[in-house]
Every structure is written in structure tokens, then in C-alpha cells.
Specification:
10 helices, two-stranded antiparallel ribbon, Arginase, Chain A, alpha/beta, binds manganese (II) ion, single chain
Length: 319
């Protein structure tokens, strides 16, 4: 290979260091101190001060990295070869202020702003869903209002929780108010559970969101839904925000606000793989709570979904 040929980071292989050894970066990638020169990066945001019920998502990034140690570079289902074309690294964690949500929001926006400013796509490991708002602020500052694919048991469009405006149940209400979203291209998938009022899902619909409740998806393949979603979102810059509680607690019970009757793991894979072709400008995987994840399966699933997100970024080649 000539000295000018581009070489890209590769995950550390299982024959170079046992998979249970070494420092637990995401997918055993090199850690980078700066986003300069990166096409995509994994970023941890260990914040759970916005949770309303079970805490623990602050430990999510560390546990997701640990469970990501088994993931190999090539996607045998889709043919995606993300490390052949993209330069990817782990940028470590945002040093959030665990005593102040508002200060943490500013720190998260500033960090993601630097990443996006370097032309690098952020793939963020939560943390609770509060973190989607400061990330969307940074994304919209660079790309303008974005389309959104939001997978969740909950719409997260409350106005206040316990009187507070910045919580894990309010990020998309704030995002609408702040003009960060193209509301006619927002899709919320997997919503379910009990509500405070019978019309809890009317507010997002009034904004123009497409709301797809979980029960409408039971026993169904999701490829047709994703065909429809891609046609509706088109070439608009798009953000993907995936709350692990969108998946049924049978598969992902290690989370703060579990709701029964959720998506299956194959459906979750169909959703992320169905984002191939969208102009994704960032993505997150939030609400993994290791203290409630006694088997590690929730973090394992979160790690794999983040890998699948990497596999559908623009520019990824398929073999
Ligand atoms: Mn959520
Ligand atoms: Mn949720």
C-alpha cells in the first residue's frame, strides 16, 4: 500500500487480544481525542438525572462498550462493511455535570457541535433520553431542522415533569418549540402503555408527526413500514433516536420505564436496517440501565443496534 493510501481504523480482532481483554472502547476501536479526520464516532453521555422512575442509565455507555466486545466488523445480513470506507473511533464520554441538567445540556451541545463541525457523524450511547434535546440543538445548528426517526415506548412530548422542562419525558416537546424538527417528517414508532389522558398521542399528531403505536405492529414484518418511512422522509437530513424501551422488556428489560407489548428484536433490526438510504446525520441509543440489566442482554442489544446504525450511515459500502 502506498504511503498516501488511506487506512482506516479497524476494531481490534479476537486474535490480537482476547475479546474479554484490553480497554473497553466501543467495538474495541481506537479512542480518539479529536473528531478531526473522523467520518463517524461513538460518544458516551453518562447522564441519568432526567429519569422519572428507575435510574441507572448513567452506567449505560460503560456497559454498552463492554458488551460491544463481541461485535465483528462485517455485517453478514446486510453486507455492510462500515470500516472499509469510514474512519471511525470512540471519542469517549461527555463530562456531564451530574448535579445540573441544564449545565449538562450545554456541555452535550458543545461536544456534539465540535464533532459535527468536523464533519463527523455522532453515534451517541446514553444516558437517558434527556440527551436527545442537546444533541438535536447541535444537529440543527449544523443542518437546519431535521427529520426524525424516534423509536420508543413513549412519545416523550410532555410539557413538564414535576414542574421541570428538561427531563427524559420532554425532549421532543422542547425540540418542536425550538424549531429543531421538520414536524411533517417525524416518525414515532413503538408507542404504547398506559397514559395520563386518553389523548396522550394527539399532541404529536397535531404537530404533523406520524405516530405508529406498537400494537399496530404486532406480528408484522416492518420492511413495508420502513419503505413508507423512507419515501416520506426522502433526502431530508435525518436523526435517529432509539430508546431501548421501544423493544419489549422480555428482550430489553434493563431500562428505566419498561412497558409490555413492545417490538421484537427482529423488528428493531428491521427498523435500523430500513434506515439505509436516509441522509442520517446522527443517531443515539438511550435508556439502557445496567443495574436493572441482570443478564447484560439489554446492553448487548444496545451495542448491536449502535453497530447497525453505523452500518446504515451514508457512505458505507456493501460487499
Ligand atoms: Mn424515550
Ligand atoms: Mn421510553
Amino acid at each position: 500500500m502506498s504511503p498516501t493510501a488511506r487506512t482506516t481504523n479497524q476494531p481490534l480482532g479476537g486474535d490480537e487480544m482476547p475479546r474479554f481483554g484490553g480497554i473497553a472502547t466501543m467495538m474495541r476501536l481506537p479512542m480518539a481525542a479529536s473528531p478531526e479526520g473522523l467520518d463517524a464516532a461513538f460518544i458516551g453521555v453518562p447522564l441519568d438525572a432526567g429519569t422519572s422512575h428507575r435510574p441507572g442509565a448513567r452506567f449505560g455507555p460503560r456497559q454498552i462498550r463492554a458488551e460491544s466486545a463481541l461485535i465483528r466488523p462485517y455485517n453478514l445480513a446486510t453486507g455492510a462493511a462500515p470500516f472499509d470506507a469510514l474512519q471511525v473511533a470512540d471519542l469517549g464520554d461527555v463530562a456531564v455535570n451530574t448535579y445540573s441538567i441544564e449545565k449538562s445540556l450545554a456541555l452535550i451541545t458543545a461536544f456534539h457541535g465540535r464533532v459535527l463541525g468536523a464533519g463527523c457523524v455522532p453515534l451517541t450511547l446514553g444516558g437517558d433520553h434527556t440527551i436527545a434535546l442537546p444533541i438535536l440543538r447541535a444537529v440543527a445548528a449544523r443542518h437546519g431542522p431535521v427529520a426524525l426517526v424516534h423509536v420508543d415506548a413513549h412519545a416523550d412530548i410532555n410539557d413538564r415533569m414535576f414542574g421541570e422542562r428538561f427531563t427524559h419525558g420532554t425532549p421532543f416537546r422542547r425540540a418542536v418549540e425550538e424549531g429543531l424538527l421538520r414536524c411533517d417528517r417525524v416518525w414515532q414508532i413503538g408507542l404504547r402503555g398506559s397514559g395520563y389522558t386518553a389523548d396522550d398521542l394527539d399532541w404529536p399528531r397535531r404537530q404533523g408527526f406520524r405516530v405508529v403505536p406498537a400494537h399496530a405492529l404486532w406480528h408484522r414484518p416492518l420492511a413495508p413500514l420502513m419503505d413508507e418511512l423512507r419515501a416520506a422522509i426522502g433526502d431530508a437530513p435525518c436523526y435517529l433516536s432509539f430508546d431501548i424501551d421501544g423493544i419489549d422488556p422480555a428482550f430489553a428489560g434493563g431500562t428505566g420505564t419498561p412497558e409490555v407489548g413492545g417490538l421484537t428484536v427482529p423488528q428493531a433490526l428491521e427498523i435500523v436496517r430500513g434506515c439505509a438510504g436516509l441522509k442520517l446525520v446522527g443517531a443515539d441509543l438511550v435508556e439502557v440501565s445496567p443495574p436493572y440489566d441482570t443478564s447484560g442482554n439489554t446492553a448487548l442489544l444496545g451495542a448491536n443496534l449502535l453497530y447497525e446504525m453505523l452500518c446504515v450511515l451514508p457512505g458505507v459500502v456493501r460487499r
